[in-house]
Every structure is written in structure tokens, then in C-alpha cells.
Amino acid sequence: MSIILSSKNSDLNDVKQSYNHLWNAFEILLFVLVGTRVKLNLVFSFEGLKIFILILIGPSFRTIDVILSVMKNKYNLKEIIFFCCIISS
Predict the structure, then answer these.
(1) What does the alpha-carbon distance between residue 81 and residue 63 come to, in Å, rounded to a whole number?
(2) Burial code of 2-11, b = ≥16 C-beta within 10 A, e = fewer?
(3) Measuring CA to CA, how many Å separate 71 from each of 43, 60, 82, 83?
(4) What is the rounded CA–CA span in Å between residue 22 and residue 38?
(5) How confident is the model over 34-61, as pLDDT tens digits?
(6) For site-directed labelling of 40, which of 52, 67, 73, 89 has its Cα 20 to 30 A away?
(7) Cα–Cα distances in angstroms (integers) from residue 13 to residues 17, 22, 23, 59, 89, in the given order
């Protein structure tokens, strides 16, 4: 999040730090409120299982794509795993 209020770097850094502190406080509140809105009967139903499988399939295809694009180069196994972890996240 960037807002330009002044041409002085010190003022901009103060504003940036203020927003960072606000985000740190409200981030926890945001995830708590989202967690309270989740319907547990949906999570443990067949539809919830389908959503969970869909969430797993997306990163799996992305990881396979990274492996296929990196295999053309002469990287060892550790480097390929590193690329999969960094690029897929």
C-alpha cells in the first residue's frame, strides 16, 4: 500500500510505518472474522471435499509446470526442488 503525501523521505517512511502497524493489528482481526464466517457443515461435506481437492490441484499443476520448464536446463535435483518451492508459492 503506497500513498504519497510529501516529498520528504522521512515523512513517507513515517506514514509507511504507521500503515504497517495498522496492517499488523488488523490482519489478525481480518482472519478471525473470515474464520467465523466459515460454515463447518460445508467444510465437512462432499462439497467441501471437492473444494479442498480443487485447492490442491492448482498448485500441483503449477509445480509440474515449473519442473517441465526447468528440466531443459542443466540443474541438479536440489535446484529444481528449490525452484518449485519458490516459484510455486
Answers:
(1) 9
(2) eeeeeeeeee
(3) 38, 16, 13, 11
(4) 25
(5) 888 877 787 788 988 898 899 889 888 8
(6) 89
(7) 6, 14, 15, 36, 29
